[in-house]
Amino acid sequence: MSVCFKFPAKIDHANVEGVLANALGLMKTLMPGSLMVIDCEDLQSFDSSALSMILSMKRQAQIQSVNIQLDAVPDKLASLATVYGLSDVVLA
After folding, report:
1. Of 16, 15, 3, whose CA–CA distance to 55 is shortest?
2. pLDDT tens-digit readout, 9-37
3. Residue 28: how many CA atoms within 13 Å on its side-chain side?
4. How high does pLDDT run on average in the chain?
5. Which residue range is the domain that position 68 belongs to?
6. Of all helices (H) and strands (E), which one includes residue 36?
7. Which CATH number does the domain housing residue 39 bear?
8. Measured between alpha carbons, how far is residue 66 from residues 2, 26, 31, 54, 70 in Å?
9. In what order do the strands lie in the sheet with 35-39?
10. What's the rounded Cα separation, in Å, for the pair 65 and 91?
């Protein structure tokens, strides 16, 4: 089974908790071995909160044995992950 979670156009300190809660709520419906695709296509404005959220999602996915796939990752997000030394974790 696979599901898609679409990131909103903006993720920052003001809305990250709500976006994360929605993502984790969807993830909790998945069976072990399922795939959760995170669609970043609409994401245009973000800060380091987005990286923190992705890390939290990946930790929860590991606990639940759910696979995560990031699609359409903006270049700026990939660059930010590299600056923080997280590209191998966040973008993997």
Report:
1. 16
2. 999 999 999 999 999 999 999 999 999 99
3. 6
4. 96
5. 2-90
6. strand 35-39
7. 3.30.750.24
8. 10, 11, 7, 14, 13
9. 2-6, 35-39, 67-71
10. 18
